[in-house]
Amino acid sequence: MALKFAILGLLAESSQTGYELKARFGGSVGYFWEARFQQIYAELQRLQRDRLVSVETVPQRGKPTKKVYSLTSAGEAALHAWLDTPSASQPTREEFLVKVFSVARMDPRRALARLKEYREEHRRRLETYTLIERRLEESGAVSDDTTQDAMLGRYLALRRGIGYERECVRWCNWAVAQLRRRVKASS
Amino acid sequence: MALKFAILGLLAESSQTGYELKARFGGSVGYFWEARFQQIYAELQRLQRDRLVSVETVPQRGKPTKKVYSLTSAGEAALHAWLDTPSASQPTREEFLVKVFSVARMDPRRALARLKEYREEHRRRLETYTLIERRLEESGAVSDDTTQDAMLGRYLALRRGIGYERECVRWCNWAVAQLRRRVKASS
DNA sequence: TGTAACATGTAAGTCGTTACATGATTAA
DNA sequence: TTAATCATGTAACGACTTACATGTTACA
């Protein structure tokens, strides 16, 4: 469901091809809902079948012919209806935490290594997000006080991403300390 | 993949039936990987086929016959191998944040209502988790300083859950303030 | 008499991943 | 000539959801 509406949401901003949508996913909704080309193309076909988007085939010189998708009024209505529906609480799925759950079965040194890898991954994400935030702020589009209408969703989502990654790294630091004690105790 | 090893991890603690596993999922790994009965039963059949678990059929009086599953040595080896494999970074999937991304398309008042529902959901979860933590601490099994070996994974995961929900609620509060300004501006 | 807890499944369908497949243009 | 960017797909498979299906005992 979410992919469908992530696409409709992006098409509401501007008509574009599947290829362009894939690129837009990175740097926007993609932080919270990734998708591969195959999935996007398949979804676009379904959306077209259901008349939520329309297509225009545009031949190009020097490049392959592309299909530009646009939101139809039915698509806009569907998007609005979905946005205004309370979200059913969805299960959290964090593979790494499933591993953490069995950490007592591991050699503490190796567990520590895995945990540090995880921390690095999230440190990098945090860095990326804060960089994007800085650029947005410098461009004057957003700030804590005033945010351009069109940027609001992007900004709110970005701040959530930053908060999430920051908290994640903080937990990692604490967990690393917990495991270090165990390494000492076992040596 | 994760479900498979979540089950193996629980069976490593003690042999049990699919029905019991489902119950154990709540209050433990279930915070980070939920599963329905159907999925657990199906997975157990696959694990049995692959000799990672063994089964004993136990007739009961007063209750239906049950199948008690145990980890085999092959199952233990598979669990350890998985635990010690670096986790590939997995995509985040948060449906609500996909909605947030399109918030500029909504009436601010309605957006505020949806956001508050989301906040309530996470407030409740936070409350549940902190209650569980308090009970664990009172039982003497865990603390910031010393944690029983068998409890370590449970405790680390729980603290992650608490951190996540707390940060989520904090973001909601900030986002509510942002939207409130928009409601005022539009009235 | 009904419902909650115990106990286990099948079948159909959706969502997502991995692998396979094609082909043009541009810049190094 | 090699890689990157643009551009779009199919097919097989695995993970997960929803709906359907069955039967016992204990307790209110």
List the helices and strands and how they pair.
The structure is a homodimer of 187-residue chains.
Chain A: H1 2-13, H2 18-25, H3 37-49, E1 53-58, E2 66-71, H4 73-83, H5 95-101, H6 108-138, H7 152-186
Antiparallel strand pairs in A: 1-2
Helix pairs in contact in A: 1-4, 2-3, 6-7
Chain A binds a DNA duplex (28 and 28 nucleotides) through helix 3.
How is this structure best described in words?
The structure is a homodimer of 187-residue chains. In chain A, 63% of the residues lie in helices and 6% in strands. Chain A has 187 residues and is mainly alpha-helical. Chain A has a two-stranded antiparallel ribbon with strand order 1-2. In chain A, a hairpin with a 7-residue loop joins strand 1 (53-58) and strand 2 (66-71). The first copy, chain A, is elongated. The N and C termini of chain A lie far apart (51 Å). The relative contact order of chain A is 0.10. The mean pLDDT of chain A is 94. At the A-B interface, helix 1, helix 4, helix 5, helix 6 and helix 7 of A face helix 1, helix 4, helix 5, helix 6 and helix 7 of B. Chain A binds a DNA duplex (28 and 28 nucleotides) through residues 1, 3, 17-19, 35-39, 41-42, 45, 60, 62-67.
The strands making up the biggest β-sheet of chain A line up spatially as 1-2
State the end-to-end distance of chain A.
51 Å
The string of secondary-structure elements of chain A, in order, is HHHEEHHHH
* Low-confidence segments of chain A: none
Oligomer: homodimer
**Structural shape of chain A:** elongated
Mean pLDDT of chain A, to the nearest integer, reads 94
What characterizes the major β-sheet of chain A? 2 strands, antiparallel
> Beta-strand percentage of chain A?
5-15%
Radius of gyration of chain A: 21 Å
What is the SS-derived class of chain A?
mainly alpha
Number of helices of chain A: 7
Helix content of chain A: 55-70%
For the largest interface, the chains and their residue counts are:
A-B, 65 and 65 residues
Q: How many distinct beta strands of chain A?
A: 2
